[in-house]
Design goal:
The chain has helices at residues 2-26, 30-33, 37-51, 65-104, 122-137, 140-154, 163-204, 210-228, 230-252, and strands at residues 110-113, 118-121. By secondary structure, it is mainly α. It comes from Microbulbifer epialgicus.
Length: 254
């Protein structure tokens, strides 16, 4: 009996790991993505080992390896759906950064990320680091673990989510882009006024090249407005993290 109980626990832990793996492997916070894939794998196993005793495990009867693979696939689908909401939330900072970079004239300037071999936005990287700092200051990592436990209890291991949950995940992704525009709104509005002033000077003094005069001015004023509006950004960034769990509830509760 003890051997059977041990096998049941191992299977349950494996299924929990399949549920949380997409979120941990794709979580875009800098302290997580900087870890090697092997370290993240062992982190997933360790978290699954800790969470398994605290979650509701439905009565699962696995009589073959095919059934085990099928249930693991179901858990991966649920995990990918939940991780899509997290990815959308963290994409808010990149969207806001891209908008600000384009308006400031830094659209062609990017940072090389040697880990993913991709080009990252300058301001987007800054906002992502700011969001990461606020996430840990608000104990978001604790709230994330509690949220994972709640999702495991709402949709027990071996269960599936309603197909409408997938649609809600895509809707949540679209709503998150709105938050990106909200984050970038003060800087975009200030730079729009700068463009209007430069346009007036270009009409009244045509001998002045508006590009070479306006570009450094827009970069300086854009960084100044961004610095001045940091206190304003804390509230919408906090709302973005809170929306993760709200959308998780909408996706799972159908």
């Amino acid at each position: 009996m003890s051997i059977q109980a041990g096998l049941d626990f191992i299977v349950s832990m494996l299924l929990v790991a399949c549920r949380i793996a997409p979120t941990f492997m794709a979580f875009p916070l800098q302290p997580v993505i900087s870890l090697p894939a092997r370290i993240r794998f062992f982190l997933i196993i360790a978290v699954a080992l800790v969470l398994t005793p605290f979650v509701i495990i439905s009565e699962i009867r696995i009589s073959s390896s095919y059934e085990l693979i099928t249930i693991m696939a179901k858990e991966l689908v649920v995990g990918i759906t939940l991780s899509a909401v997290v990815m959308a939330a963290m994409s808010v900072f990149l969207v806001a950064g891209r908008l600000i970079d384009f308006q400031m004239g830094l659209g062609a300037a990017t940072l090389l990320n040697p880990q993913s071999n991709t080009q990252n936005s300058l301001i987007g990287t800054l906002l992502t680091l700011l969001g990461t700092t606020i996430f840990f200051l608000l104990s978001g990592h604790h709230a994330l673990l509690k949220g994972i436990i709640e999702t495991l209890n709402i949709v027990p291991i071996g269960s599936t989510i309603h197909p409408n949950g997938l649609l809600d995940a895509f809707i949540a992704s679209g709503m998150m882009f709105m938050y990106g525009a909200i984050l970038a709104a003060p800087i975009l509005l200030g730079l729009l006024l700068v463009d209007l002033v430069i346009a007036v000077f270009a009409r009244t003094m045509p001998q002045v090249n508006p590009y070479f005069v306006g570009l450094p001015l827009k970069i300086f004023l854009g960084l100044f407005i961004l610095t001045a509006s940091l206190s304003y950004l804390i509230s919408p960034i906090t709302a973005v993290f809170e929306k993760i769990f709200d959308y998780w509830g909408q996706v799972l509760v159908q």
